[in-house]
């Protein structure tokens, strides 16, 4: 007899087994081989699923419950470890398939480079796409030690593909002088803070299709130590949730989102996947109408 997996921790809590009728699809991208400092985010998706079992189904912020929403958890993509280029191809093809099926992709990372092929697929489907990027790091390098396929380059690639003025960055507090100069000139750039500038910027996005990518290291290391490139001086989980709810209550049309860079091995308390799983719940309830 089949055992219901909804509360097993093997899937994100309350995931439906019905792909066809699910609006959103959760998928893991267990890739961490281009990181500049500490690896380990390949284990992020599994730990976010395990931590999700501790969540309530109901969101008092949004007065909505995940039992009233149908989403499917596809598990983790099978990636060829060590081969970044082929891994990105596999991610891109998978997300293109989700978009063809009319789904909202909900990605679990993995290092931030996994977002690059997702953005390529999203932009192909939505030519008027805007990106909301919430992160401690600008991720605007052209290469890292000569390597363009690095977790420090995805937003630069996106800016070159779709124009920096279609990208909104929040919470950035780390990067090279060149990245900050590039951001100030080319991007809608809101460094250090997240919730207040988010509320300021959202009206200018109107009802555009938006992809939201959150690097967990935007949080202060005291709130999320389990990440490869922890950066002091970050925001609280309360401020991050406030920003997510501002997006949810705005008129933008969120067409996909992800949470990346959860590296559980650096966090024996598992606080980092715990906060990431609540973010996913709130984004499912706030963004998937
Ligand atoms: Mn980062």
Descriptive report:
The chain has helices at 44-52, 84-100, 115-125, 154-162, 177-186, 195-201, 237-249, 271-287; strands at 24-29, 58-59, 64-65, 71-76, 104-109, 130-134, 167-170, 188-190, 209-215, 253-260. It has 289 residues and is α/β, with parallel strands linked by helices. The strands form 2 sheets. Strands 4-1-5-10-9-6-7-8 form an 8-stranded parallel β-sheet, with helices on both faces. The chain has a two-stranded antiparallel sheet with strand order 2-3. β7, α5 (177-186) and β8 (188-190) form a beta-alpha-beta unit. α1 (44-52) crosses α8 and α3 packs parallel to α4. The longest helix has 17 residues, at 84-100.
Q: Name the ligand types.
A: manganese (II) ion
Global mean pLDDT: 97
Number of helices: 8
Helical percentage = 25-40%
Q: Radius of gyration from the CA trace?
A: 17 Å
Q: Specify the structural class.
A: alpha/beta
Low-confidence stretches: none
GO molecular function: agmatinase activity
EC number: 3.5.3.11
Protein name: Agmatinase
InterPro entries: Agmatinase-rel, Ureohydrolase, Ureohydrolase_dom_sf, Ureohydrolase_Mn_BS
């Amino acid at each position: 007899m089949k055992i219901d997996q909804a509360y097993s921790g093997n899937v994100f809590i309350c995931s439906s087994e019905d792909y066809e009728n699910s609006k959103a699809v959760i998928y893991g991208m267990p890739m961490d081989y281009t990181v500049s400092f500490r690896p380990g985010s390949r284990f992020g998706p599994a730990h976010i699923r395990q931590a999700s079992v501790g969540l309530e189904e109901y969101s008092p912020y949004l007065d909505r419950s995940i039992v009233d929403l149908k989403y499917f958890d596809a598990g983790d993509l099978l990636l060829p470890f060590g081969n970044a280029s082929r891994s990105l191809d596999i991610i891109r093809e998978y997300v293109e398939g989700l978009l063809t099926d009319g789904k909202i992709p909900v990605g679990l990372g993995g290092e931030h480079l996994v977002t690059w092929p997702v953005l390529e697929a999203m932009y192909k489907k939505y030519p008027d796409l805007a990106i909301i990027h919430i992160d401690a790091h600008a991720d605007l390098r052209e290469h890292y030690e000569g390597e363009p396929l690095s977790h420090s380059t995805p937003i630069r690639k996106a800016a070159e593909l779709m124009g920096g003025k279609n990208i909104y960055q929040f919470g950035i507090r780390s990067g090279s002088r060149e990245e900050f100069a590039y951001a100030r000139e080319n991007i809608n750039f809101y460094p250090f803070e997240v919730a207040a500038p988010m509320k300021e910027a959202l009206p200018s996005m109107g009802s555009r299709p938006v992809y939201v990518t959150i690097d967990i290291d935007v949080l202060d290391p005291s709130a999320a130590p389990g990440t490869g490139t922890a950066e002091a001086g970050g925001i609280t989980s309360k401020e991050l949730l406030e920003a997510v709810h501002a997006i949810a209550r705005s008129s933008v049309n969120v067409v996909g989102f992800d949470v990346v860079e959860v590296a559980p091995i650096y966090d024996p308390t598992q606080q980092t996947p715990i906060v990431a799983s609540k973010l996913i719940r709130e984004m499912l309830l706030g963004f998937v109408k």
